[in-house]
NmrA-like domain-containing protein
Amino acid sequence: MTTLITGGASQTGVALAKLLQASGHPVLFASRSGRVPEGFDSVKFDFTDPSTFEAPFSASGHKIEYVYLLLPLLDPLREAKPFIDLAVTKGTKRFVLLSASGKFTEKGPGSHGTGQVHTYLDEQGLDYVALRPNWFTENLLRVYAVGIKQYNVIQNTLATARIPLIAVDDIAQAAFDAITDVGKLPNREPILIGPDLVSYSEIAEAFSQTLGRPITFSVISREELLKRYLSYGVPDALAHYLADLEDEEENNGASEALLKDPRSLTGKLGVKEWIVKHKQDFISA
């Protein structure tokens, strides 16, 4: 009853693996880079190289019954479909997909990105759970840590939007339930949101209080946001997709509407508590 976790040492994959291991459920990582947490078995795996697809099913001591799919945002169905089809023939019982919230990934013929993958899983009549988290709380570390540590500032295009950021630990718990006791979830495509609805100016204030120094929030243009994404090496199509998501937040209150969506599942870790927990990661040099 091994769970195969694709994507190597991703944030949600590692957190899920630890929950599964602690409860006695075997785990096998599938990694292109070979970077996996210590103490876990792994195989070489690359969605762009079909010759690696057999490796998880040939791993000694593992029978793959569950697959946690972490996929790239751009054209994920093209890469995932051949592996999903193979996994079905190998006896995989359930796929747990990390998708995303928002209109762009709603299931159906007009879906984009990972939404196309759970559309395919549904059309094939497969047993699956598509986890649809809102913006990760951990983005405060991945995206904004340098600005906070070096310049005491958070910058993005979200002037007034209020967002229920969801923590990785809460996403991992939902994935764990999807594998071990799916009946705990409200539905098979739960939208995962955090317990707090906060603006980035409120987040800056929370950082100020926790770090004991003023952290400010400033708004940048869409053009500046795109320029930054491209400077980070983000592909042009993905950069525009991410900018579109921020536009949807600011102009239409996309995340705020999720609080009233009956499909939503609320996590436990709030933004302020998360900031206190990760205080040391934002101490200036």
About this structure: Residues 2-133 form a domain with the Rossmann fold fold (CATH 3.40.50.720).
